[in-house]
Amino acid sequence: MNLSMFKKALSNPLALAGFIIIVLIFVLAMLAPFIAPYDPNEINVKAILLGPSMQHWMGTDGLGRDVLSRMLHGGRISLLVGLVAVGISTLIGILLGAIAGFYRGWVDVLIMRLVDVMLSIPSFFLILAVIAFLTPSIINIMIVIGLTSWMGVTRLVRAEFLSLCEREYVMASRTLGARDYRLIFKHLLPNSLTPIIVSAVLGVAGAVLMESGLSFLGLGVQAPQASWGNILTDGKEYIQFAWWLSLFPGLAILITVLGYNLLGEGLRDALDPRSGHQK
Amino acid sequence: MLKYIIKRVLWMIPLLIGISLISFFIMHLAPGDITSNETAFNPKASEESRQKLREMYNLDKPVIVQYGLWLKRLATLDFGKSFASHQKPVFWQTTDKDGNVTKGLIQEALPITLMINLLGLAITLILAIPLGIIAARKYQGWQDRSITLFNFVGFSIPGFWLSLLLMYWLGVVNNWFPISGLHSLNYESLDTWGKIKDSLSHLFLPVVIPSITGLAGITLFVKNGMLDVLHQDYITTARAKGLNEHKVIYTHALRNALLPLITIIGLSIPGLIGGSVIAETIFAIPGMGKLFYDAVLMRDFPVVMGILTIGSALTLLGNLLADLMYAWADPRVRRGVVKG
Asked: How far is residue B183's CA from residue A219's CA, in Å, rounded to a whole number?
């Protein structure tokens, strides 16, 4: 993927919309310490459950904390968890998929059976079970989401490798005596990057949803640290009195995930001539 | 067909062994002795139940022996007893020597989750199939574009947030639907019709919300399936011989377009079972998801392990059923012409 491909991808209006959304959210999250009007963890007993106003744009929560400030700081967590988790799962997926697709034989059988096993365990159960035995923390959540979502990438990379290995240029390179790592890293991997990037971008969307779900259940990011998911937990608690506690974090998750989904699908349409139905 | 079934069932054995291995070793992730870790969080576990846990998992023996013994008990469907909820059996009912029957936790929870998911799936299909057909027929028209937009939002919306919003709007503000549990407090005093009405109104939100979030995927799938089929030669033939469009779409195209849907439904089972955790927690539905979540919070190991294993086995079973249905519906698969 080079600059011209990136430009081509962004000429797709969906991808462009997704890209703009994600950049905006990143900028807001990065600037959180500077633009947040209050300390996100500052408790103010005189300002409990205030509705949105000029002082508190998104109102305050049950401890009088400013929701806008918590949203901005929570955004950092959601974005970080999404990126790191997908980084982990993509690395594992590339590694296992490359081994399976390149060496075939019993390694391939073994890896693909492992994929089948992992796919048959309901992933949310698996994640909850692992977290039950570890302590919930941001690092553990990123690792656990990463370790339970590599199966798609593995299948993808393996399929790409299997088909690329049949190409003449790979055979030619092999005949010329290229070593395995050269074949894998110079010839096969660069030509498999497009689908990997698309699946990684879509994967971030899934990881953000997963993190917010876990935090919502109280098994993700722990209070007092804010995340969009655990602000929603408070939202559920106060749903009869404080709609703003439920509305804003959910909208933020929706917009972020939508951004990644739009970018991912847009990239797929723009970069992969096989996809879509331009018949 | 029989050969296909046997092959397909035998293929599940290595998967089941893999699942049992993963479930077993997750238990050993906990730092130190699981009995001490667990009791640190669970005040209800007495020294006696800790001892029972040690015996149950043979913690004094080497890991590989522990696994073998655990597997042996699994083979007889003995998942042990919960220590958080009064020693109830995890999986199926037991009868003690006085003839008292104690129902199993999964035995009670599973039908509820299955019912909610099957109802939800039915609603999803009823809505998704027509939407997918419309999107494919009006491809790139405004109908298709609005359905695509709807799909993107459907893929991206957090189900638990939608639940909260609808709970607030339909349950709290308008008070049209009850927002928690399966029955009202006065359920037992209602007549039959009242009981049905009461159950339906309790089920409405928990059933409808997952089916809305699941709608996007299935709609997209039906649309793509239709688009693929509509460009095939036999459809052109059907049109060329003068069949009306209605007949071409609904009797020729639809049947082939919906075929892969069987597989997708089979593949979506783990998501449905796993997804039930959040929905059941929000609406206080005593199904598998809530049981699992409570067990996780209580560090109730036998229940966690039991649900993990049963949930995975159900997934395998669902996939098996989907494959068999596919083979039944598509003669090419069962005769081994193409791989299903």
From this structure: 28
> Which helix (H) or strand (E) covers residue A58, if one does?
none
A257 to B155: CB separation less than 8 angstroms, yes or no: yes
CB contact under 8 A, A254 and B153: yes
Q: What is the pLDDT along chain B (340 residues), one digit of tens a residue?
A: 777 788 888 888 888 888 888 888 777 766 555 555 444 445 555 666 667 666 666 666 777 777 887 788 777 777 777 766 666 777 777 666 676 777 777 877 888 888 888 888 888 888 888 888 888 888 888 888 888 888 888 888 888 888 888 888 887 777 777 777 777 777 777 777 877 777 777 778 888 887 887 888 888 888 888 888 888 888 888 888 888 888 888 888 888 888 888 888 877 777 777 778 888 888 888 888 888 888 888 777 778 888 888 888 888 888 888 888 888 877 777 666 555 4
Residues of A in contact with B33 (CB under 8 A): none
A112-141 residues touching B, CB cutoff 8 A: 113-114, 116-126, 128-134
Count Cβ atoms below 10 Å from residue B305 Cβ, excluding itself: 23
Q: Do A258 and B156 count as a contact with CB atoms less than 8 A apart? A: yes
By CB neighbour count within 10 A (0-12 exposed, 13-18 middle, 19+ buried), where does A172 fall? exposed
Interatomic CA distance for residues B327 and B129, integer angstroms:
21
Contact across the interface for B282 and A261, Cβ inside 8 Å: no
What's at B269, amino acid-wise? I
Task: From A210, A220, A232, A261, select the one nearest A85 (Cα to Cα).
Answer: A210
pTM summary value: 0.84
Distances (CA, A) of A247 to A236, B55, B170, B249: 10, 49, 15, 42
A272, HSE (Cβ side, Cα atoms, 13 Å): 20
Say yes or no for a CB contact (<8 Å) between A117 and B15: yes
Which of A133, A216, A243 faces B29 most closely, judged by CB atoms?
A133
The amino acid present at A200, given as its one-letter code, is A
Among B161, B156, B276, B206, residue whose Cα is nearest residue A233: B161
A-facing residues of B in 77-136 (CB < 8 A) are none
For residue A90, give both structure tokens.
């993509």
What phi, psi does A165 have (nearest 5°)? -60, -20
Which A positions 208-247 lie with beta carbon below 8 A of chain B?
Answer: 209, 212-213, 216-217, 219, 232, 235-236, 239-240, 243, 246-247
Q: How close B320 comes to chain A (CA, Å)?
A: 11
CB within 8 Å: B274 and A125: yes
Q: Which residue has the tokens 């979030």?
A: B213
Element (H or E) spanning B94, and its range?
strand B94-95
Q: Inter-chain contact B282–A236, Cβ cutoff 8 Å?
A: yes
- Nearest-Å Rg of the Cα atoms of chain B is 24
CA of residue B43 relative to chain centroid, distance: 31
